[in-house]
Write a structure and sequence with these properties.
Elements (H helix, E strand, L loop, with lengths): L7 E5 L6 H11 L4 E2 L3 E2 L14 E2 L2 H9 L3 E7 L2 E6 H9 L4 E4 L2 H10 L4 E6 L4 H12 L4 H15 L7 E4 L3 H19 L2
Parallel strand pairs: 1-7, 1-8, 2-7, 3-4, 8-9
Antiparallel strand pairs: 3-6, 5-6
Helix pairs in contact: 1-7, 5-6
């Protein structure tokens, strides 16, 4: 991307690894970043609002938008569909704002093809991997035992993919992981503001 062009940062990792929390901390430190709001077919959780946490779409509407080419990436995950609307990212880039995408690994792999200039960061759990992931998923209180086991099975596969990403951040402590994440994005933020 030429200097002065807004950057796209893809932050991914297994479910329950703390991507959302890390991104929240990063956005507090670097307010010039804007989070792209993903679309999903899952039902809103208590306290979630359409257009804030997600764009909640009926499965038929999601499929219509996929067919119309409105998504930069989309993937099925835990029985629901998730995706990044092209309009969400384009609007922010056109206004000169660097964009953060919090997406699943399948989607990050698609972004690698459709937007190779995007900077990709993989967030991994500390050792022991699955015990910490399981504890986080159980602690959220949003999934059934069966859903948690399904997410852990997917996580085993996803962790093997981390070597394909530009950067890896181990979420061993919130402060340390946020510092690592900020150190990764800071040089590109300085470049895009020139």
């Amino acid at each position: 991307m030429p200097p002065g062009t807004a950057k796209v940062f893809v932050i991914t990792g297994p479910s329950g690894v703390g991507k959302g929390t890390l991104i929240g901390q990063l956005l507090k430190r670097r307010p010039e970043l804007q989070l792209s709001i993903s679309a999903t077919t899952r039902d809103p959780r208590p306290g979630e609002a359409d257009g804030v946490e997600y764009h909640f779409l009926a499965p038929e509407e999601f499929d219509r938008r996929v067919a119309a080419g409105e998504f930069l990436e989309h993937a099925a995950y835990s029985g629901n569909q998730y995706g990044t609307l092209r309009s969400e990212v384009d609007r922010r880039i056109e206004s000169g704002h660097p964009v953060v995408l919090e997406i699943e690994i399948q989607g990050a792999e698609q972004i690698r093809e459709t937007m190779p200039e995007a900077i990709q960061v993989f967030v991994a759990p500390p050792e022991p991997e699955f015990e910490s992931l399981k504890a986080r998923l159980v602690g959220r209180g949003t999934d059934s035992a069966e859903a948690i086991e399904g997410r852990l099975a997917v996580a085993r596969h996803e962790l093997a993919a981390q070597e394909h990403f530009h950067h890896q951040v181990v979420n061993d402590s919130l402060e340390h992981a946020t510092n690592q994440l900020e150190a990764i994005v800071a040089p590109d933020l300085s470049e895009s503001s020139q």
